[in-house]
Amino acid sequence: MNRDVPAPAPKVGRSGTESRPARPLAVDSRLIHAGEPVPRIEGAVAMPIFQTSTYVYGGEEGYHNLRYHRLNNSPNHLALHAKLASIEEAESALVTASGMAAISTALLTILSAGDHLLAQARLYGGTYSLITQHLPDLGIAYDFVEGGDPDEWERKLRPETKAIYVETIDNPLLAVPDLEAVVDFAREHGLVSLVDNTFATPVNFRPVALGFDLSLHSGTKYLNGHNDVIAGAVVGRADLVERIRQKLNELGGCLDAHAAFLLHRGLKTLAVRVRRQNESAQALAEALANHPAVARVHYPGLPEHPTHANAARLLDGYGGMVSFEAEGGGEAAARVARRLELAIDAPSLGGVDTLVSRPALLSHAGLPPAERERLGIRDGLIRVSVGLESADDLIADFQQALEE
Fold first, then answer.
1. Catalytic residue check, 379
2. Average pLDDT of the residues in 60-66
3. Quick one: angle between helices 99-110 and 238-251, nearest 10?
4. Exposed site from 7, 229, 343, 378, fewest CB < 10 Å?
5. Domains of the chain
6. Catalytic site includes residue 142
């Protein structure tokens, strides 16, 4: 996909104006300039932190239009909304208190009692638990499907099906679904299409431009990029985002002002970080694939990955996540994690530090063991979030950790 594509003109805060550059800007430039207040607030180049909960009443009509931080309309919120909409080439965007706040509020807005959801079989553990443990309590049914099998989607479609949910790059085996087919299927059957774009980021993939109704993010990860913020985002169709905003206003999952400031700052370096991580992850995946102590490597940039063709067709980069299975199962994986010197054994991903985790113990610990095994999430699986260290140093670190 072409990075230098036309994008909606960035919109700014209520007292600002719209900035319309003379030519379409690349995503790198939009990350810096989209959504910035015009004119700059008191001349400040960096977006100030609006550490206030409430604002002087200005005659706004309707509860959701009042100026109040919990209603997600502070200047910090509005700047982020405009920037995220611009980089994803979408009509609208919304930031939330966490990635799970974005996912849960979006699903609870679109689905209600009696509805049915189709969801990709292998998902982030928190999303899996939400769908399997909490949606049924509200009378919402679901079926899991494989991301590359439209015939299965047809078989499991019901009259009450309202939405289809996938991940751009799934967690943790890094498969890329047939995203074009998902969009076509949703349109044909009048479904809302949702995609968790956290692993890919808008630098590598822009779902709304492909036709998805909603793109969701854990802003905790790549969007912020420094392991110091919890945040989420919903991007997509304006009518849907506004419905989700009103639901979020009532559920209370607004993003704190300081967290909004840090997310805004992190977004400005997203493109340079992600492209570096793409390159380093590719190099690490290739090195691991040739190591005798590694049983299997999962990385969509490897030609042997089962969904490499989808990734090559759809993505501008293969991402900074690599998963591999150590020979010897869970005990071997534990030894590797202990022996690493640069990579840190910790949950989360997308930051400047390389992190490793074992999904069976952390992100997917909530899945029953038999279900994990069925999905290919084995005890020996190690998930690597490649940071900004030297690729050569990272490769050497993993090689020494695998020596035993």
1. no
2. 93
3. 110
4. 378
5. 27-267 (3.40.640.10), 274-401 (3.90.1150.10)
6. no
